[in-house]
Write a structure and sequence with these properties.
Keywords: Hydrolase. Pfam families: Abhydrolase_1. The protein has 294 residues and is of the alpha/beta class. The protein has 14 helices and eight strands. It has a domain of 197 residues: Rossmann fold. 40% of the residues lie in helices and 17% in strands. An eight-stranded mixed sheet has the order 1-2-4-3-5-6-7-8, with helices on both faces. A hairpin with a 2-residue loop joins strand 1 and strand 2.
């Protein structure tokens, strides 16, 4: 990781690597206490959580992995369906000696978290589901070009684009800075909240060999993932779940989804855009601490 990340005392976090489930994962960690896992979304990396970690590490052991294919984790050719990516994290936590843990996911990290909570209900103590439309529960609907979707900023056009085999790689390769600086900031309420350093760090990883393909493979497993997530309708999550949305992006859809697949759901909202840890890390951290600690 090119950029330095600091804990609550201003000390550099500890980086590590573990080979689990056929992939070598990079992660960083700080703090002592009960473990809290933070899962990033797309097109981001573990760097996304850099300003949240020091707000949590004074009380918890915070573990922040790069998902399979992202950041400084290995870019495998296959394995980008949500159940398998969730298995990566479950095995990582076992390797680190943690049987039970609190789980926070945003965007596709929330989908990985949902798959992990489904497969390991006894290990996830509480789950925070942030700013994601699950395949099978709304993701496909927002991909449609309709007047209402465009008017309400609910047209997620890239879902269709990324599902075209090979062509997105061809168009974006060599233009990663232009593409991702626009894409990430376009989903913000305050585009200036995402620093040039953050964009450069994300671009460093996605411009690396295999970086773009790994991202697109996540989207290309959408139908497989939808079938998997629909099984939660008959076996709902039992642990406490916080559905956390942003006023200016996915918002209340998070709560609607979670109430379909979980029995014990609380809801919260922040008046920002999609990139909450970039736009409002202090407010986000406060909500996480309040939910996890009670």
């Amino acid at each position: 990781m090119a950029q330095k990340i600091l804990d609550h005392n201003g000390n550099p976090v500890t980086h590590g690597r573990e080979t689990v489930n056929g992939v070598r994962l990079h992660y960083y960690t700080a703090g002592e206490g009960e473990p809290v896992v933070l899962l990033h979304g797309v097109p981001k990396t573990s760097y996304y959580w850099r300003n949240v970690l020091p707000k949590l590490s004074h009380k918890y052991k915070v573990i922040v992995p790069d998902l399979r294919g992202f950041g400084d984790s290995a870019r495998t050719l296959t394995g980008y369906d949500m159940p398998n990516m969730a298995e990566d994290i479950a095995q990582l936590m076992t390797a680190l000696g943690h049987e039970k843990f609190f789980l926070v996911g945003e965007d596709w990290g929330a989908a990985v978290g949902m798959a992990l909570a489904m497969q390991y209900q006894d290990r996830v103590k509480k789950f925070v589901y942030t700013e994601m439309l699950l395949p099978g529960f709304g993701l496909e609907d927002w991909s449609h070009l309709t007047e209402e979707n465009v008017r309400t900023n609910h047209w997620i056009w890239h879902i269709n684009f990324y599902n075209v085999r090979d062509f997105p790689e061809l168009l974006i390769s060599g233009r990663e800075m232009l593409y991702f600086s626009h894409f990430i900031r376009h989903e913000c309420y305050d585009p200036t909240a995402v620093s040039e350093e953050a964009i450069a760090e994300y671009v460093r990883c996605y411009a690396a060999p295999g970086g773009l393909r790994a991202m697109f493979e996540v989207y290309r497993a959408t139908f497989q993932d939808a079938a998997f997530f629909k099984t939660a309708l008959d076996n709902k999550l039992k642990m406490p779940v916080l559905a956390l949305g942003s006023t200016y992006f996915i918002g209340e859809e998070n709560t609607r989804e979670m109430k379909l697949v979980a029995e014990n759901v609380e809801e919260a909202s922040l008046p920002w855009g999609h990139q909450l840890a970039e736009e409002c890390p202090n407010e986000l951290s406060e909500i996480l601490l309040n939910f996890i600690s009670k």
